[in-house]
Amino acid sequence: MSAFLRRWSGASRWLLRAGERVGFGGAMMSQPAVRLLVGERAVAFPRRPLILGCVFLESFAGPVPGGEGAVARRASALVSLGADAIELAWRDAGGMSCETEARILEMLVTKISQTVRCAVPRDETQIFPPLLAVNIQHVENIAVAVSLGVGIIASPSPQFPKRAGIAGIAVRRPYPTDAADDTVAETLVRVGTDEKLRSATIWEVPLCAFGNASRGRMLRVLRQLVASGCPVLISEPGSCLMDAADALARDAEMAACLVAGARSGAAMFRVCNIEMAWRVLRTLERLCAL
Known about the structure:
This protein is an alpha/beta fold. The chain has one domain (3-288): Alpha-Beta Barrel (TIM Barrel). Helices cover 42% and strands 17% of the residues. The strands form two sheets. The chain has an eight-stranded parallel beta barrel. Helix 11 (247-263) runs parallel beside helix 12 (274-288).
């Protein structure tokens, strides 16, 4: 275990100080009754927020480096570290055809689903088998992903919100972080009042939105979304997930965000360091039980 990770074994005092720095001085987590609906699986809160781990591919436009077995083993390793959900993403999807995406989805998702079921969950709080997530470049392949058991889908396509009504998936949508606080209600109106639809719409807020200048406003937005029954995902940027540079500073920043986000009701965190996130959230959970 690295010297940095050893520091987390006695993290109770540090976590309380981190919570105070971001504006939460008490010991209780604040999680309204939110339900995350992923196909036929429902995750009810309050509970420990879910940890989303990413498996990156070099490209979706050509053969998978190392083969599907290596990708599946990486996903299984993330589950063993404590990941509740696995996301399949890629560094460069340029030039990828619809047919290529469908073929590689069928190959990788099937292999990952088979392999992760053999992983050993880290503890009893973990979602197992893990939820599967994927970024879809071609909306025509949403149905393919659903048929393979993918439960959470995001897409850069402008057609995606219009085509995302397919039953059996949770939709990940970026929240407009530059919007004013009073636009939260307007944003929710666009989703609709249907409880099932709101439970299956995951609003994604990037970690950078919680910088010193905007932290207070974004925490207010987060609490408003959660109070309306919406699951919220806080994510590290893709460049951080792929780049190990400055990992120590990044982990410290993410740890403080884990504390603040969990106490404001965030349902899920997309992180690079699964080990660190699991230790922080489990320590916070134990502190809240005192």
